[in-house]
Write a structure and sequence with these properties.
The chain is built from six helices and two strands; from the N terminus they run ααααββαα. It has a two-stranded antiparallel ribbon with strand order 1-2. α2 packs across α4 and α3 runs antiparallel to α4. The longest helix is centred in the first third of the chain and has 20 residues. The protein is globular.
Length: about 150
């Protein structure tokens, strides 16, 4: 790859993160509206979503597991989870590359975790989907964030 291509790709990755952050609230509102149109309860605002996170995330995971029209919502579920965690534990969205071969993903950094490792809500959603049975979600998230 030419150096110019690498610089252009870095610019694209940075622009993606800027757009991700800039449109987070609008995207979550659209996600909640979409769920309502499909006959589901609206999402609690992420700022107030911690107390009901277990119920909300269980319902969203169940929708994702149905597949079909809901399969494309996994990214939105991850974004919602990330925003709830950000409001609860602090931090900010940054683009994180775990190794040279990874496509960078938005992850939360600067939260209460010690040692400070990125929190990847998209990986957590995938892990919750792949697990057998639903854990106590808030305890699971606290374990992920606080180690």
């Amino acid at each position: 790859m030419r150096e110019e291509d690498g610089v252009a790709f870095e610019d694209i990755k940075e622009e993606f993160l800027e757009l991700f952050i800039e449109h987070a609230e609008t995207e979550l509102e659209m996600f909640s509206d979409d769920l309502e149109r499909r006959g589901h309860a609206p999402l609690p605002h992420p700022e107030h979503g911690w107390q009901s996170l277990g119920h909300t995330l269980s319902a969203l995971i169940a929708l994702l597991d149905e597949g079909g029209e809901y399969e494309d919502l996994q990214y939105d579920v991850g974004r919602y989870l990330g925003e709830v965690v950000r409001f609860r534990f602090g931090g900010e969205w940054l683009r994180v590359e775990l190794n040279d071969d990874d496509v960078p993903e938005p992850m939360l950094v600067g939260h209460e975790m010690d040692p400070p490792e990125p929190f990847n809500p998209f990986a957590v959603v995938a892990r919750l989907r792949g697990g057998s049975g639903m854990p106590d979600i808030r305890a699971f998230i606290e374990q992920c964030v606080r180690h």
